[in-house]
Amino acid sequence: MSRRAHVVQLTEPVSDRDHSVGPSDAPLTLLEYGDYECPYCGRAFPIVQDVRRRLGDQLRFVFRNFPLTQIHEHAEHAAEVAEAAAAQGRFWPMHDWLFPHQFALDDEALLEGAQDLKLDVERVRRELANGTYRSRVRADFSTGIKSGVNGTPTFYINGVRHDGDFSADTLMAALGEALHSSGVKHA
Amino acid sequence: MTRAANQGEPAPDFELQTSAGDRLALRSLRGAPVILAFYPADWSPVCGDQMALYNEVLPEFERYGARLLGISVDGMWCHRAFAENRKLRFPLLVDFEPKGDVARRYGVYRPGDGTSERALFVIDAAGVIRWRYVSPIAVNPGADGILEALEAIHAEVAP
After folding, report:
1. What is the spatial distance between Cα A149 and Cα B38, in angstroms, rounded to a whole number?
2. Cβ B50–A68 below 8 Å, yes or no?
3. What CATH number did the domain enclosing B96 receive?
């Protein structure tokens, strides 16, 4: 086995099982492996929203779970609650609720979030207790490991790991470069 | 400066103090794969830094029967505080006196910085280096390369 190149690629392509927002044929796909309890992901959240606004239909955003359960005690259940919301067609509202609430994510708070979003709270409670989405979250984690996720958040732009920081300027520059190399002119 | 330890060569033996305060000799781990993860310093200011990430992936390493050892030039008390803070479930080795001696013997010491590189070695059950990777110092290399190397070793043992 030889030394790997510095370009690290996503091994699991984006598919129907993913949570994505934006056109599926957008020239740019930004994918994040994240942890709802991670303060760095929390910091990245408004930046990603800003980038999404700026790029509009040129960008598809995908989020996969990468809870660091040894250091963040609520991260696993937070991820499972997002999946429970997805089962009720409300993944993104829950995703958008979780990050701003990341300082209080115990089960009670998570269920309050489900209530705020008018989900079937009893179903969410039951699914959390049964670990209904645990294997789904593990599967995301596992694809992340294989793809070279090296902390949270880790971003991929059109399937290539973004090793720069996640300031809006850095992300926009990297996305602009990817857009340029994909051969699509700026709108 | 001694030459780098390369793939296919016996892993240089060492005996070092660990974050738990005991001593650990590489040769005592013969019979199972060993992952030796050199990193520049404890307390890098990110979540899910390299050691915290490996702590999460530990069950996957253990599926191959592999032992994981973190190693840096930090002292024992620093390692211990770091390991407790990050709840690390694997030992950190103290390459502190003579400073960076083991890193030098593996060819991954950075004299200007006084730390090791961010370097990974996967050593097989016979004590032979099967894979080595030196990452750009600012880039956490993740766990994918380690798992590939363990898989390759495993495929040979149990085809």
Report:
1. 18
2. no
3. 3.40.30.10
